[in-house]
Protein: DNA polymerase-3 subunit beta
Amino acid sequence: MDLTATTTDLANAAAEAVRLLPGRTLDPVLAGLLLTTTDDGVVLAGSDRERAIRLSCSAAVHTPGRVLVPAKPFAETLRALDVPMVRIAVEGARLAVRTPNARFALPLLDADLHPGVPTAPPLAGSVDGDLFVAALTTVAATASRDEALPLFTGVRVRADGDRLVLAATDRYRMAVASLPWTPVAADLDALIPATLLAEVARQARGQVALHVDDNRVGLAWDNSVVTTALLDGSFLSESKLVLSAVDTTVELDADALLAAVRRVALYADSRGVLKIEVGDNEIRLRTADQQAGEAEETLKADVSDGRTSPSFQSRFLIDALKPFSGGRVRLAIQPGMRATVFSSPNAEEVMDLRYMVAPMRPPAT
Structure:
């Protein structure tokens, strides 16, 4: 193999590959990056037999070839370079990264031992990348990090006619987003690891295509394709969350509420809990702790119906308000320990987002 590429393009592709590949494998072959030349340049690929990635980068190919190199050292070397062009060439048992005044040589791994990268499953449809990223940024963050409960570490992605619905929960909160999409196949209902989707949200751009079969799901954008095995098990359906018990509705500026929560939370107890007291045309945030002290702040709000006053863990409340920044937010409050639903009162929003947070016991006063 011998090729010349734009340093920035190749460095970005290698860095993206490293971020998308699982980083916990101890097998050096599975932790390697497979470089294969094509008519248009070079393909960077990797797989741990569960997740697989494939990225393309334009390059001038002098000698075709296929090599396997340690992924992270290769990406870090390219990122450290400050020259416009870089040459990549096999020299004996090493892959040389050359610039006009420097040479870095990486050991070659046995490419024949690599399992290869499977092709993506059949196309299910496509979605606008900006909307998809916005939805994933919120929804994937609500999934559990507890690997002992794999069911809750995924995001359910399903097609509902011309809408794509994403849902995730860690049992204490749940986010559901619905956005327009262009279906190709009617059948899409997949539980996808949230960690992968969170990384996709940092990298995807343009149109994002979704591919799916009975065992795998794939996402493709620009010159990038990532596939992974689906999580097992059924998933809680957001349609089961009936809000017939709502007795209090509050609407106000999301940024004002978010800022107030952050200030009052400085005085919260070890649980970080604060109470939202609902009054006539206002709400009051209140918390107290014997060690930290006490705080309260009042905000103007449109209040209708009852006067249920729930308490929340402040960090969950902050996460629930962030997606509505720049506009108004509506709180549909249910009595007792039923969840409160945060949503936008603007019916013209392209993406419909609902964020549900379970209440906590109120802080001691």
Observations:
- The chain has a mean pLDDT of 91.
- The chain has six helices and 27 strands.
- The helical segments are 7-20, 71-80, 129-139, 194-203, 254-265, 314-321.
- The longest strand covers residues 51-58.
